Amino acid sequence: MRKRHSLTSLIFQYKRPIVIGLAALSIVDACQLIIPLVIERVVDALTLNDGGARSITTYAMFLVGLGVIMSVFRFVWRYFLLGASRRVEQRLRNQFFNHLELLSLKFFSGRKVGDLMAHTVNDIETVRMACGLGLVIAYDGVVLLVFILAAMLYISPSLTMYAVLPFPILGLLIYSFGATIERRFSRVQEAFSELTESARESLSGIKVIKAHVGEKRELKQFEDASSQYVHKNFRLIKVMGIFQPLIALISGIALGIFLLIGGRGAIYMDITLGDFAAIILYLGMLAWPMIALGWAVDLVRRGRASLKRINEILAIRPDDVDDKHSIAAPIEGDIQLRGLSYTYPDGTRALEDITFDIKSGEALGITGATAAGKTTILELLSRVIEPEEGHIFVNSGTDIKNLRRDCLRTDVVYVPQEATVFSGTIRDNIAFMNAELTDEQIEEAAKLAQIYDEIMEFPDGFDSVVGERGLTISGGQRQRLALARAILLNPKVLVLDDVLSSLDLQTESAVLRNIRAAMKGKTLVAVSSRVPSISGFDRIAVIESGRVRELGTHEELMDRDGIYAGLYNIQTIT
Question: What predicted TM-score, i.e. pTM, was given to this entire model?
Fold first, then answer.
C-alpha cells in the first residue's frame, strides 16, 4: 500500500530550502523585535535628555539599517519558502496524475472526471497554500509571539502577566474552531467537485444538449450545483467570520488591560515612558501573531482536508499492476483462447467457456447480436479486464497473465468502439504526439483509413484543429482518425471493436480491405455487426449469449445455413 502523505512529510522533502527560508524569516523577525527597543531608547533620550540629538541620529541610522536588512531577507525567505511550496505542489500533482494513469478502467467507471479534476487542481493548490503560506505564518506567529512575550517580560514582568491573561482563551478558540474548519472545508471541496463535474458534462455533451433543446435543464442543474457550492462556502465563512474577530477581540482586551494598568504605572513613574512606549509597540505587534495563528490553523486545516482526499485516491492500488515475475516477450505464433468466462460487476454473465484459436497472420472476423460478448473477448485479449476462468496463451503456451502489460499492448493494439480524439490538430491525433513519424507515414495511414481526401478538404489540411473531443468532425471521421493512429503503431496483432460502425457499408468494406493489405503477415481481429464487411476474412466467429455458436470461413458458414447465413442474407438484400 502506498505511504500516506502528511503536510510534514511533504515539507521535509525540501529540507534545505525550508531551513534557509526559515533562517531568513527569523532574521526579519529579529529585526522587527529590535525596533521597539530602539524606540524605547529614543523616547527616553527625548524625555530624560539622555544623549541628545547625536544619539537620536545614531538610532535613526540604525533603524534604516534594520530596514535594509529586513528587505533583503524578506526576499530570501519568500524565494525559498514559497518556492519550496511550489515544488511540493509540482511533485504531488505529478505523482497524483501518474497514479491516476496507472489505475484500472474499473476505477474510472465509478469516478466522475470533474471530481478527479478538482483533486488534481483545487485540492493540490490548497495543499500548496498550507505548505507555503501556512508554514510561513505559523512559524512567524509562534516566533514573534514567544520573543515578544520574552521582550515584554524583560521590560516589565508584572505588566506582561496582566496583558497575557486572555491568552488561554485564544488557545481554546484555536483548538475548537480548527476541527470545524477542516470538516466544513472538506464539504466545500466535495461541492466544488460536483460543480466541476456538472460543467464538464454539459460542455462535453453540448451537441446533444442543443440537439434536444436541453439548455434550460442543464442551466438548472448547474445553478443547483453552484448554489450548493456557495452554501457550503457560506457555512465555512460563518465560522471564519466568528473566528478572526474573536482573535482581534482578545488582542484588544490585552491592549486595554495594559493601558489601564501600565498607564497608571507610567503616571506614577513605576516605569519609564520609554518602557511604556515599547510595551505598547510590542502589544501592537502581538496582534499579528494571534491573527497569524488563527490564519495558520485555517490554512493547515484546509490543507489537511484536501490532503486526506488526495490520500484516499493514492491509497487505491492499481488492479493491473504486473507481477514481479512478469516477463517481456514479443507476441509470436498463434493465440489460443481456452475456457474463457467472465461476469460483469453487476452480475451479468458476459462469456461462458469461450474456446478457439486465432492463427498467426490470419484475419478473424467476429460478429453477433448486441451484448453477445464480442467486446468482452477483445478486452480480455488486450488485458483491459482479466478472465474469471480460463486462459489466453501465446508463444506456444505462454499465458498472457505472465507477460508485462506494456509489452503485450505494444504488440496487441486494441481500438475500442468509442473513438477518442484529443484536442489539437489532425496530424497530432494521427501521430499520437510521436515526433519521429514523417509526413509521408501520417498521410499513408490516413489513406489506408480512407480519410485522406476528407482531410485535404479541410482549410488547413492535416494542420486543422479538431477541437476538444473532436466536436468539429463527424463520428465516422473520428473513428477513422483513431484507426489511422492504430495503424502507425505498427502492431503484430490489431484488434478492432466495431470501429467503423459510423460508416456506410461500402466505405467500411474498403477500409477493412486496406487494413488487411497493410497487416499482411500479421494478425487482424475485427468485430463488426455488419456481416458483409467481414465476409472476406479468413475465418468468422459468431458469438451468441456469450458462447461461440459458429466458427469457419464464409463459405463454410453459408453452407451451414445457421446464424451467420441468416444475418448475411438479411444484410445483403437489395
Answer: 0.69
